[in-house]
Amino acid sequence: MAKFLVPGAASAAIGAVVGVVAVLGITFAASENSRPEIDRSGNADSSILNQVEYGTR
Questions:
Q1: Which residues of the chain have pLDDT under 50?
Q2: Distances (CA, A) of 7 to 1, 4, 20, 21, 25
């Protein structure tokens, strides 16, 4: 019986550890949800709705 009990218990323990690491890793990756700041350093007089027009029309 020990032939099956020890490898089964070891497999279950390793599977549990891998599962916990996967859940924590996915949770950490999903919580990285900050937005970058928008660069608003453009010249307001030369842009329409903050979209700079290049060239002449």
A1: none
A2: 11, 6, 20, 21, 27
pTM (global) more than 0.85 = no
Of 50, 52, 54, whose CA–CA distance to 38 is shortest?
50
According to the model, what pLDDT value does residue 1 have? 77
3-state SS, the chain, equals CHHHHHHHHHHHHHHHHHHHHHHHHHHHHHCCCCCCCCCCCCCHHHEECCEECCCCC
Distance, CA of 50 to CA of 43 (rounded, Å) = 8
